[in-house]
Input
Amino acid sequence: GAGVSQSPSNKVTEKGKDVELRCDPISGHTALYWYRQSLGQGLEFLIYFQGNSAPDKSGLPSDRFSAERTGGSVSTLTIQRTQQEDSAVYLCASSSRPRVDTEAFFGQGTRLTVV
Amino acid sequence: GQSLEQPSEVTAVEGAIVQINCTYQTSGFYGLSWYQQHDGGAPTFLSYNALDGLEETGRFSSFLSRSDSYGYLLLQELQMKDSASYFCAVTATESNYQLIWGAGTKLIIKP
Output
């Protein structure tokens, strides 16, 4: 597609359930980021994939969070045993490399609500 | 460690000029980016500075001083549609060229 696609756009889940969020980056983009944004707040880094390198997972808030990127393209962010504090908008972005001055393109996000 | 500081909120009048500052602390600085985010929307790219000086794109300009670890975004002829949050983000070799983000500045424009 022409842009970064995320699904679902909205997700309401019960506390304790697992959720999977999907990101389809722009074709050919080797860098992929996941961020979390709470209402009125800045972007909280979660995880960064760059090509075939080991991902930078330093932003994952707990071991309930994990992400993978298959074939260097689609990425899935999984949150296990969701808690109410996980409620936020989860944003995915991709950019091309090795040009570090290339802009990052964001998807519209998945709004996760844990009830 | 790495950190960025920008004001949490700035208020300006329609038609005026406003400057949003960003100071950063990082090793292996590579470049400074600015993004705009409207409420409920995704961040969108505005500008990128790797070298000292001013980059102009229409009503928006971005400035960088590497020696001062400082940059700013300048918005001219403000329009109501410019009401949004503005984020600065640093790219650094220390972080494997990953974007490190500021907390954002909410720009409020009054008629």
Summary: Chain A touches chain B at residues 31, 33, 35, 40-43, 45, 48, 50, 53, 56, 91, 93, 97, 100-101, 103-109 (CB under 8 Å). The longest strand of chain A covers residues 88-95. Chain A is about 0% helix and 45% strand.
